[in-house]
Amino acid sequence: MRLSVDGTLYLCLGQDDKIELRSLLRAGISDEELKAVLTDAIALKPEKHEFKDKPDQVVRLMSMTGG
User: Fold this and answer.
1) Which of helix, strand or coil describes residue 18?
2) pTM of the predicted model, to two decimals?
3) C-beta neighbour count of 34 within 10 angstroms
4) How far are the Cα atoms of 20, 27, 51, 56, 60 from residue 15, in angstroms, in the given order?
5) What is the pLDDT along the chain (67 residues), one digit of tens a residue?
């Protein structure tokens, strides 16, 4: 997982899934609500990567993501 400077939480380099945290934080999300969002996000991550077997699976390079 990577947190970018604009508040986007990227869940995996091999997926398009992401969570926009900035808008939630600016809206005043509680600590418990934030914890639930992060827990749900972690549950979306794949169990393992298959980058060696499926090199096309890389959606973005780590240098593009930042964090």
Assistant:
1) strand
2) 0.68
3) 13
4) 15, 27, 11, 11, 8
5) 888 888 999 887 667 778 999 999 999 999 999 999 999 998 888 776 665 666 665 555 555 555 4
Distance CA 23, CA 7 (A): 8
- CB of 16 closer than 8 Å to CB of 59: yes
Locate 61 and state its tokens.
């390079």
The residue to which tokens 């993501």 are assigned: 65
**Nearest C-alpha neighbor of 9 from the set 40, 46, 33, 32:** 40
Contact 45, 32 (CB under 8 A): no
- Please state, in angstroms and rounded to a whole number, the distance separating the CA atoms of residues 60 and 4: 13
Structure tokens at 40: 């749900």
Q: Which helix (H) or strand (E) holds 61?
A: none
